[in-house]
Specification:
With 338 residues, the chain is mainly beta. The chain has no helices and 27 strands.
Length: 338
């Protein structure tokens, strides 16, 4: 684990590489947001995970992560009334996205010290259950069917290496009991934003290649070298999510759109979209019923909520209570998850 010093200047967009910060170790990677990688000017120190909740918290709600904030928030229900958060988890800075499983367990990848924090459900903002170290790169996204007993797939936007020329990103495979021990790479994965894991145990990565072309890589059983999918129409990388029919939702950061595909093993067929998003979003998730879609809007500092069907996406409302435009609202997850 290492402490990281960050300059106040804007970092380059996550899909591109930039110059080194003189305060960073030469063999270290810098925290990067897949969307707007602006970071606070301060020396970051190890964060002790603590529970900021009471036993009275509900089981149903929405988690929201801000990249430049030290805690992530839990909101009750779907928060149509724009109520303030009812609880939070001290996650540390540089959490791009979060994930939940069907039991309500929460996974928060944290680029500060490259840790994966797991919190126990089913109530919102439950106690810390595990803290894992990702030894391969800077974690930005996660996917799991059961955070405490099964695989957790982690997307690393880039792997550890020199700041001036960071290595391509990867997928790290972890378990709460065994830690992070496997790493998946592919020549067409240069910078990663999203990862998905289906019920069969297959993985997908949303990435850009060395030419900044969006790619979707399929890893059968989350092993091997992966295959580049065909029929993928996204112009940019972004978050991934499955709906109740097994269709793959793929956010397009460049086009601020949502595409819905079937298959992608490795041939993708477009089912719905592209649907224009209300704001600038890189991550979004469905509720357990699969009919409500929420996305973090980093441009306006709010969460945008939609009615979802595989062939239609309808904006309904937004909430922003206690969120900050300057903190880059990105990560989102319903609890319980799908």
């Amino acid at each position: 684990m290492r402490n990281i010093a960050i300059s106040a200047a804007l970092l380059a967009l996550a899909a591109c590489s930039g110059g080194a910060s003189p305060s960073l170790p030469q063999n270290s990677s810098r925290p990067q947001s897949p969307a707007l990688p602006q970071t606070p000017s301060q020396i970051l120190r190890d964060v002790r995970i603590s529970k900021l909740t009471s036993p009275a918290t509900p089981k149903d709600g929405i988690y929201v992560a801000q990249f430049d904030a030290s805690s992530l928030f839990g909101y009750a229900g779907t928060n149509r009334r724009n109520a303030p958060p009812i609880c939070g988890e001290t996650s540390g800075y540089f959490v791009a996205d979060v994930a939940t499983d069907a039991k309500g367990d929460l996974v928060a990848p944290n680029q500060q010290n490259e840790t994966i924090n797991v919190y126990r459900g089913p109530h919102l903002c439950g106690p810390a259950a595990a803290q894992l170290h990702d030894p391969y790169g800077l974690p930005v996204d996660a996917a799991t069917a059961n955070a405490l007993t099964k695989k957790i797939a982690i997307a690393n936007i880039e792997d550890d290496g020199p700041i001036s020329d960071p290595p391509p990103g990867s997928i790290t495979i972890c378990t709460a009991a065994g830690g992070c021990t496997e790493n998946l790479t592919n020549p067409q994965m240069n910078r990663l934003a999203g990862v998905a894991l289906d019920k069969r145990g297959d993985c997908w990565a949303s990435a850009t290649n060395a030419s900044s072309v969006a790619t979707l890589i399929y890893f059968a059983r989350c092993t091997g070298n992966g295959k580049v999918t065909t029929g993928f129409q996204n112009a940019g990388y972004g978050g991934l999510e499955f709906d109740k029919s097994g269709n793959l939702l793929a956010l397009d950061y460049n086009g601020t759109q949502l595409f819905v595909y079937s298959g992608c093993r490795p041939v993708c067929t477009l089912v719905g979209g592209p649907f224009a998003l209300h704001g600038q979003s890189i991550y979004g998730k469905l509720d357990k019923a699969g009919t409500t879609f929420a996305a973090g809007d980093y441009q306006t500092g709010q969460v945008d909520v939609y009615k979802y069907a595989s062939t239609a996406l309808t904006y309904e409302y937004s909430f922003n209570q206690d969120l900050s435009r300057g903190s880059s609202v990105e990560g989102i997850a319903f609890s319980p998850g799908r």
